Every structure is written in C-alpha cells, then in structure tokens.
Amino acid sequence: xxxxxxxxxxxxxxxxxxxxxDAGHDVVALVRHTGACDARxxxxxxxxxxxxxxxxxxxxxGPCDTLVHLAARVHMMxxxxxxxxxxxxxxxxxxxxxxxxxxxxxxxxxxxxVSSVKALGEGEPGRPWREDDACAPVDPYGISKREAExxxxxxxxxxxxxxxxxxxxxxxxxxxxxxxxxxxxxxxRGIPLPLGSIDARRSMVYVGNLADAIRTLATREAPVGGVYxxxxxxxxxxxxxxxxxxxALGRPARLxxxxxxxxxxxxxxxxxxxxxxxxxxxLRLDGSRLRSELGWAPPWSVAQGLxxxxxxxxxxx
Length: 317
Prior knowledge:
This protein has 11 helices and 11 strands. With 317 residues, it is of the alpha/beta class. It has a domain at 2-174 and 204-233 and 284-299: NAD(P)-binding Rossmann-like Domain (Rossmann fold). A 7-stranded parallel sheet has the order 3-2-1-4-5-6-10, with helices on both faces. Strands 7-9 form a two-stranded parallel ribbon. Strands 8-11 form a two-stranded antiparallel sheet. Helix 3 links the parallel strand 4 and strand 5 (110-114).
C-alpha cells in the first residue's frame, strides 16, 4: 500500500514507519525538517505546521491509500501562547482537516488519526474508559483533540472516507522523554520516591505496540472506523510502574510509603494540585475493541517494553 504519515520523524512516527517499511509498504513522510526519518521513507518537506500548503497541492502528496495523522501541537504543562486553545485548534483541528483534504485529493480511502486519552477528560469514571463514553476534555489540548476527532468524522461521512481514531494513554519506549524519562533517571540514580502508597492504576502503551496497532488499522483490507483505545493490556499501579522500571534498569526500587493525602496537601501548598492529582488518580482505558473486532494483541508485554526502554536509556544516558 501507499501510506502517507505526518509526524513521521517523531517518537511514534519513527516506530510506525519502520514497521510499515518492514512489511513492504511504500511510505511518504510529511515533515517540516528532513533527514530524521527511516532511510526507506520518501520525505516530503512541507512549509507549515497546519498542512495548509499540502492541502493546496504545494507540494503534491502523490498517490495515497491511507493517511496516518500523527503530527500535533503537543500537550504542554506551561503554555506561553496568548490564547492556548486557539493555538491548539490551529494545528490540531485545522491541521488535521488540511491533511485530510490533501489525502482525499491523493485518493486515500482511509484516515487513521492518532488522538489522545485527554480527548476523554482527566481521571476516569470509576472504571476504564470505553470508546463509547461521553467525552469531557478539560484542557485546551484535550479539547482540540476531541474537536479534531469530530471534525474528521464529519469529513469522512461527507466524502466517503473511513476514519479510525486511535486514543493512546501514556506512551513509553526507546527515546521517550518528559516525565517518563525523568522517572527513569530518578530510579537509576537511586533517588527515594514518595510513591509507595499510590495504588491507582494507569494504562500505558509501549511505542512498538502503539505502532503495530496503527499499522493494523492503516493496512487492514476490511473496513475499519470509529474510535479504538490502545494499551499494553496490563495496567500497573504507580508504585508497580516504579518497581517494573527498577527491575528493567537493574536497580532497587526506593519507594517511600507517603500517604496520598499528604502528597495532595503538598500539591496544594506548592501550586501543583493538578500534577499531584494526575499522579495519584487512576486513568485506565478499555482496549478490548481492537482485540475483539480486529483480533489484535500487543506484540510486546510491559516487561519486554520496559526492558527495551531501559536498554536504550542506558546507551544514551
């Protein structure tokens, strides 16, 4: 198949394009900066973040069976934009629609849009989120991702194009950055962590598992559509996550059992209530639809995914 991928030189994009190339598909990468993609990929440099130019055919996308839209303005803890929601909408909503118009002009019959758990909201409704749950996003990033989902479903209905939305939770793997890398660094250095009493479970997905699920949706011969949640299928507690990371790194897990109420009190005093609430609250996704309808199963277990992540961390730290 001929598959176009936006954000192909990013964390998930590199894993996905490698899988697609391994399977013999022709991949074109829509990127702002060339040189960071798999050597087997044809890079198509574009001039803007919201794909307005390629929607106008400059440059032309070329023949395309499926578009995988990964590119996004990512979630930021401290956003310095004058109007964060407008900034997110410009890239994440209008950008997705512009990419969709380019794909339609190139003959695509399917679009796979990678959204986020944040399109659902914060926390969980007392059980793992299901694909058919009502969404209640609370921050500009989550709102923009949900609006992009809705805009693409309307686009697909109007133009007869299949739309498959993928909502991943926390993604980890070789090259992961931000909070997960910071947690690995703390464990590797033997820093005591006050997380021993947190029994909230949180879904995660190894980047290889996420890439494989996207590949399955992008290349499946039978029709696909709607929302799909992707997880490793093994939701660890926060303390269990630290212990699993420690095992993968060959380090002791130095967990201090600080009561959750104390942690939340510290969060209020330091102005980090939202961060502490996210850390101490459960957030799980029900990923059974991919398994039951498509027969998909994650190729890597959590232990295998963390082992690969730790191996890469040790090489590059």
